[in-house]
Design brief:
Number of helices: 2
CATH superfamily of one domain: Methylpurine-DNA glycosylase (MPG)
Shape: globular
Radius of gyration: 15 Å
CATH class of one domain: Alpha Beta
Helix content: 10-25%
Distance between the termini: 26 Å
Number of strands: 5
Length: about 130
């Protein structure tokens, strides 16, 4: 999280699940964004196999599910987001985003620091 921007910061929580963050601030600052969910559009068979479910909405809807589906673990920590195993495709279309409170916190709930695509069924929890 304190590394250079444009890198992955991957860590384990509860000794069980991996979490993927994108480092976004200057090196040494400790600034990153937790990637909670994505809309899976390709590689669905492999993701289903890795997750053990054919349910499209359960493949990547949550930080642990996402990393399991994409086979992300400690090996990806520090990887540049524009290089393997990642691939940066850029903006694909215009979307309407929504903001809400972060999930799983008891303090700071007034800060709207969670963002997602409006109406997406692929978020870990509805806004």
């Amino acid at each position: 999280m304190f590394g250079p921007p444009g890198r992955a910061y991957v860590y384990q929580i509860y000794g069980l699940h991996w979490c993927l963050n994108f480092v976004c601030g200057p090196a040494g600052e400790g600034s990153a964004v937790l990637i909670r969910a994505i809309e899976p559009i390709s590689g669905l068979a492999q993701m289903s196999k890795q997750r053990g479910t054919p349910n499209l909405h359960l493949l990547c809807s949550g930080p642990g599910r996402l990393t399991q589906a994409l086979n992300i673990d400690r090996r990806c920590d520090g990887s540049a987001l524009g290089e393997a195993p990642f691939r940066w495709l850029g903006k694909v279309d215009d979307v309407t985003t929504v903001a809400g409170p972060r999930i799983g916190l008891k303090s700071g709930v007034d800060s709207l620091w969670r963002f997602g695509k409006a109406g997406s069924p692929f978020v870990s929890r509805p806004f």
